[in-house]
User: Which sequence fits this backbone?
């Protein structure tokens, strides 16, 4: 009996609870958007439905809706990014918010100011929302834990942890073309070990009920226990692509060559580059996706990237609508949380 | 100043003599002068009522970071040695990674003088094996030994190459110094901060794989065998490393090991939520590793339990997980964490006390850790059933970085005597 009482101490039950306590309010609505982990199928579907309603906004002559009028959103990018930052900025502006872009690699923390002090300064400027990208896994959770309670935090990518808005725009793109997730087999190719996009995509696909999620990579680019992510692991591209409905290729960072994870870009392309020659293994109408920016001739052949199955530009297009949905939902959940 | 103390009717537990009896201890001039009935002329200046309490040899902690000199925002010699005696610890072993490192007699002397001036517990020092712990140039090990260092270590810092390590060991062995190894292959550890396992995979945190420890343990065993030096492994974290140590011991090599109490309580499951208080070096590992460490504790492969006390200022833990400093302020939770091994049936209370006192005393080569007539009156008197709540306000250490804050713990130190002086009472 004593054995039972003294199981190794594990704080606050489990992982699911921990992330949910932070990002959901008492009604189970988003107040921050930090990770796909812990979110329900219903909530993910609601994000996609809300995003669908925003897709048309971009096609109108007046592209703004007044949902976040009077709100101030700070883009805190501790890591460089053009695309993600721009689509967040566009999403915020289409919701009529004021946007502050802060490029922090040249700012305070490089002068020795602590992250917490910097956040307090921004709080004092009465911002309502922080959109955060940071090189450390867990940075978005950290910021959400330590900012004053009226500020919503959106994770725009933290280390190798998650990039949840990218996952949601990927899901919107997939749903747009495939209508549902139930029967889909999805393959993710490339640097799974370091990819926050892969982690968020895998979680979202599994939550939304995809039939099978596969990852395809050499052992050096796979986590030690990749199966714990609830994926089937393939080391061979051709067998991994067999019969899949969606192919997501990941960007290969150049520094992987220097850290002895890969011999060369050429060999990676030979083995794992998505080329016309291997595409026939997948379903004929398989979608081809890439979170960008692409290295043509490294992870993907140009003809494939520009071919008829590619939905890479759709992803960018849907990125704005998805971020509008997430920003507005989190702001509303944050406001409700404060009232209660 | 009372120096004759009568400890009345405590449950005296002494692993050296295998004594477990309710009896009285009589202390004078810093020593235990009688057990059971007093010497004829004994007149107590002070009586401690120890009914319902355990009287054990004072605990000896093989790894306690004092942070002074150099990092007194985290802790200082006075605050941390005071926290030690509040935790029943009568001697601590201080690793060389102060700032500057303990690589000169001056630093060694400074620390010993300040520990003596603070007047709380006793200290054993480990000298740096290499100058500035840089892993390149031999330190003046003979001078360090003269200045009081009982062993040498390079902390977590790597060696330039294996030849440098070999020469350090050869030189140290010339003067019968013990090599205290914190086994970590720095290239395999890279910039990692957590165990390689499902938690790291989910959280996307960089890993310190188990092989970073086992490769270093193997290397150190082989080099120590070659050189003939005695080696002590500090704070093992993996089941595999315990097996390597057991193999070496079976082969008759002079190899010992310790683990920290928190490695026997927490696993990498604690990392979900990115709580930086669980950022440790070596990292918290899997349940199987925890099990393997407990097996080692139980069968004697792992001789000693330590606190691996690493106090930090709040700012050191106030950042995204990978950017925080590793370590737990662990002195004050040593006894309650260790007692859970008894509650769960891993160790008898006697065996636990041995791992906290006699065994580390032998590793440090000091004649302590026993309760005997004529021996030093270094004693810890504790209530094994007392429940209390750990709070930042009540912590004596400057570092409040404990994941157990707010928890109800069982087992509390009531009195600590160092060389016959009552240094702590609740």
Assistant:
């Amino acid at each position: 009996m004593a054995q039972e009482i003294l199981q190794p101490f594990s704080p606050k039950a489990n992982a699911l609870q921990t992330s949910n306590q932070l990002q959901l309010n008492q009604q189970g609505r988003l107040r921050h958007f930090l990770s796909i982990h812990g979110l329900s199928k219903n909530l993910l579907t609601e994000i996609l439905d809300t995003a669908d309603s925003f897709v048309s906004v971009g096609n109108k002559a007046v592209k703004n809706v007044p949902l976040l009028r009077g709100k101030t959103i700070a883009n805190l990018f501790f890591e460089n990014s053009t695309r993600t930052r721009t689509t967040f900025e566009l999403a915020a502006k289409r919701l009529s918010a004021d946007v502050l872009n802060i490029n922090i690699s040249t700012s305070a923390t490089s002068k020795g100011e602590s992250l917490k002090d910097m956040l307090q300064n921004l709080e004092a400027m009465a911002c309502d929302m922080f959109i955060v990208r940071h090189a450390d896994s867990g940075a978005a959770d950290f910021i959400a834990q330590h900012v004053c309670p009226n500020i919503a935090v959106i994770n725009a990518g933290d280390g190798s942890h998650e990039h949840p808005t990218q996952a949601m725009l990927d899901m919107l793109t997939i749903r747009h073309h495939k209508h549902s997730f139930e029967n889909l087999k999805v393959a993710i190719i490339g640097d799974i070990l370091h990819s926050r996009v892969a982690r968020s995509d895998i979680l979202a696909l599994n939550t939304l009920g995809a039939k099978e999620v596969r990852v395809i990579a050499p052992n050096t680019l796979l986590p030690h226990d990749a199966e714990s992510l609830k994926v089937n692991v393939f080391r061979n591209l051709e067998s991994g692509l067999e019969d899949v409905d969606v192919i997501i290729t990941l960007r290969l960072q150049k520094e992987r060559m220097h850290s002895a994870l890969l011999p060369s870009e050429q060999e990676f392309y030979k083995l794992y580059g998505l080329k016309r020659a291997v595409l026939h293994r997948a379903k004929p109408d398989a979608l081809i996706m890439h979170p960008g920016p692409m290295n043509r001739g490294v992870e993907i052949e140009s003809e494939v990237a520009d071919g008829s199955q590619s939905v890479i530009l759709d992803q960018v297009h849907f990125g704005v609508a998805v971020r509008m949905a997430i920003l507005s939902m989190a702001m509303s959940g944050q406001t409700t949380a404060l009232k209660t | 100043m009372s120096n004759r103390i009568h400890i009345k009717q405590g449950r005296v537990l002494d692993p050296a003599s295998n004594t477990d009896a309710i009896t009285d201890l009589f202390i004078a001039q810093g020593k235990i002068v009688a057990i059971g009935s007093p010497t004829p002329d004994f007149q107590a200046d002070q009586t401690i009522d120890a009914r319902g309490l355990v009287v054990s040899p004072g605990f000896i902690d093989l790894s306690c970071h004092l942070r002074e000199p150099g990092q007194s925002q985290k802790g200082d010699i006075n605050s941390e040695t005071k926290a030690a005696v509040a935790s029943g610890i009568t001697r601590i072993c201080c690793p060389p990674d102060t700032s500057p490192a303990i690589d000169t007699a001056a630093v060694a002397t400074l620390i010993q003088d300040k520990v003596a001036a603070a007047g709380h517990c006793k200290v054993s020092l480990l000298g740096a094996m290499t100058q500035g712990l840089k892993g390149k140039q031999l330190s003046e090990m003979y001078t360090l030994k003269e200045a009081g260092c009982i062993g040498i270590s390079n902390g977590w810092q790597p060696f330039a190459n294996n030849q440098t390590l070999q020469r350090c060991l050869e030189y140290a062995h010339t003067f019968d110094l013990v090599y205290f190894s914190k086994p970590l292959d720095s290239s395999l550890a890279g910039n990692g901060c957590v165990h390689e396992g499902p938690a790291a995979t989910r959280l996307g945190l960089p890993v310190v794989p188990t092989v970073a420890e086992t490769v270093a343990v193997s290397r150190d065993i082989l080099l120590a065998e070659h050189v003939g030096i005695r080696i002590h492994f500090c704070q093992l974290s993996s089941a595999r490393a315990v097996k390597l140590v057991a193999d070496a011991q079976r082969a008759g090599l002079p190899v010992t090991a310790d683990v920290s109490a928190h490695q026997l309580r927490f696993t990498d499951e604690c990392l979900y939520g990115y709580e930086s208080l669980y950022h440790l070096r070596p990292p918290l590992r899997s349940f199987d590793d925890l099990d393997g460490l407990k097996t080692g504790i139980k069968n004697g492969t792992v001789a000693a339990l330590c606190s691996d006390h690493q106090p930090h200022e709040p700012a050191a833990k106030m950042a995204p997980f990978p950017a925080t400093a590793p370590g737990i302020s662990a002195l004050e939770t040593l006894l309650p964490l260790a007692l859970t091994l008894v509650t769960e049936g891993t160790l008898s209370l006697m065996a636990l006390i041995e791992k906290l006192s006699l065994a580390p005393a032998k590793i440090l080569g000091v004649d302590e850790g026993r309760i005997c007539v004529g021996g030093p009156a270094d004693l810890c008197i504790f209530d094994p059933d007392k429940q209390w709540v750990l709070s930042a306000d009540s912590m004596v250490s400057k570092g409040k970085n404990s994941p157990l804050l707010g928890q109800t713990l069982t087992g509390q130190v009531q009195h600590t005597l160092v060389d016959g002086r009552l240094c702590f009472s609740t």
Summary: The radius of gyration of chain B is 21 Å. The CA atoms of residues 176 and 208 of chain B lie 32 Å apart. The longest strand of chain B covers residues 379-389.
